[in-house]
Amino acid sequence: MKKAVLATKNKGKLKELQELLRELDIEILSLDDFPEVGKIVEDGKSFFENAMKKAKAVSEKTGLLAIADDSGLEVDALHGKPGIYSARFAGEDATDAKNNEKLLLEMKDIPIEKRGAQFRCVIVAYRPDGKWIKTEGICRGTITTEPRGEKGFGYDPIFLPEGLDKTMAELSMEEKNKISHRGKALAELKKEIKELL
């Protein structure tokens, strides 16, 4: 069985990716399997730059195909913020709850019709010989006024996907994977990754 490394220690992301790529017969490992890789500083100016930096570094250090994503929430009324700073919106060691709290506070005076937002995900799959592919996915929706739901992670409890009456955190993994930014980017990746295997 071929192996690939997901350039993350995030258990939620790992589970999502393993589920989505299950039928490809690839063993998906994570950075927990390669402690020697160390921390990769995400100092890119875009989701693509960060994903590329992580995928390249992990592939070079492990000698395996590496898959890295960078994703985040872009809020229309905040001119695209938090964007690439989504994970640390409320500070370097921010928790999901703190990030959600800060975002809701910044948006407290914004009416519901102006609370449009999107999750964006860019994925880079990088092979040790330097060959790579990039895919992208977007999920449009609205920022709620309070968190709802226990599933998912990140901004899921305050993001209401377009056309649904449940937040991302109220959806099952299967429902979420069909519509999420990461699900869409991974569906594209699934079509294109065969040329890297």
Report on the structure:
Helices cover 28% and strands 24% of the residues. The protein is an alpha/beta fold and 197 residues long. It has a single domain (2-196), classed as Maf protein, CATH 3.90.950. The protein has a 6-stranded mixed beta sheet with strand order 2-1-3-4-5-6. α4 (173-179) crosses α5 (181-192). The longest helix is centred in the N-terminal third of the chain and has 16 residues, at 47-62. The termini are close together.
Main traits of this protein?
single chain, 197 residues, alpha/beta, Maf protein, six-stranded mixed β-sheet, 5 helices, 6 strands, 28% helix, globular
Outline the secondary-structure elements:
Layout: E1 2-6, H1 11-20, E2 26-30, H2 47-62, E3 65-75, H3 96-106, E4 116-126, E5 132-143, E6 159-161, H4 173-179, H5 181-192
Parallel strand pairs: 1-2, 1-3
Antiparallel strand pairs: 3-4, 4-5, 5-6
Helix pairs in contact: 4-5
Q: What's the helical proportion of residues?
A: 25-40%
Cα distance, first to last residue?
11 Å
- Which sequence of SSEs, written as H and E, runs from N to C? EHEHEHEEEHH
Counted beta strands = 6
CATH architectural group: Alpha-Beta Complex
What's the shape?
globular
Number of helices: 5
Q: CATH fold name, please?
A: Maf protein
- Give the spatial strand order of the biggest sheet: 2-1-3-4-5-6
How many domains would you count in the coordinates?
A: 1
Q: Which structural class matches the secondary elements? A: alpha/beta
Percent of residues in beta strands: 15-25%
Radius of gyration: 17 Å
CATH class equals Alpha Beta
Mean pLDDT: 92
